[in-house]
Amino acid sequence: MQELALLFLLLSSSVLAEPIFHEKKYPEGKRPFAAVVQFHTSGEFSSKSYISDRGEFFLKEGFAIYVPDFFKRHGITSKTRKKTWMAFRKPIEKELSEIIEFIKKDPKIDPNNVFAVAYSNGGYWATYMAATKQVNAASSHYGVWQWGKI
């Protein structure tokens, strides 16, 4: 019985050590690369949108791109998007801080050049990352600014 408990503890701690779901893509050229972390909208994560469409601009400019999905782990959908701040703000803050640290440890990334770009819901998180000095700078496109009225 103790072996099962120990095995469960080891497996669950390694699962929790994994960063939130994310996708990444690197440009061609000499590394280490500066990185842009793109935070998605309330319309949820879309690999095509953030890696292929919006991401192409950053890749062509020589930036690596990371796109974390801060909805998936918590079962948040576009219809339940208010849970992002109401029920899961603290866990998401922690998870996004962890993904930034994960990015900075990527040997292909220059840890001194990590930036955030965000859209709508993600604008809150990009601003949070910059305000807490976890990224060098952030840009929020049509971001969320009325925290008290969510």
Look at the helices and sheets and give the structural class.
Answer: alpha/beta
Secondary structure tally, helices: 5
Distance between the termini: 47 Å
In CATH, the architecture is 3-Layer(aba) Sandwich
What's the number of structural domains? 1
By CATH, the topology is Rossmann fold
> Averaging pLDDT over every residue, what do you get?
83
Strand order of the largest sheet: 1-3-2-4-5
The amount of beta strand, in percent, is 15-25%
Q: What would you give as the CATH superfamily?
A: Alpha/Beta hydrolase fold, catalytic domain
What letter string, H or E per element, gives the SSE order?
HEEHEHHEHE
The CATH class designation is Alpha Beta
Give a topology summary.
Elements: H1 2-17, E1 22-25, E2 33-39, H2 47-60, E3 64-68, H3 83-86, H4 89-104, E4 109-119, H5 121-131, E5 138-141
Parallel strand pairs: 2-3, 2-4, 4-5
Antiparallel strand pairs: 1-3
Structure description:
With 150 residues, the chain is an alpha/beta fold. The protein has one domain (31-144): 3-Layer(aba) Sandwich (Rossmann fold), CATH 3.40.50.1820. Helices cover 41% and strands 21% of the residues. The chain contains five helices and five strands. The chain has helices spanning 2-17, 47-60, 83-86, 89-104, 121-131; strands at 22-25, 33-39, 64-68, 109-119, 138-141. The protein has a five-stranded mixed β-sheet with strand order 1-3-2-4-5, sandwiched between helices. The relative contact order is 0.17. Mean pLDDT is 83; it is low at 7-16.
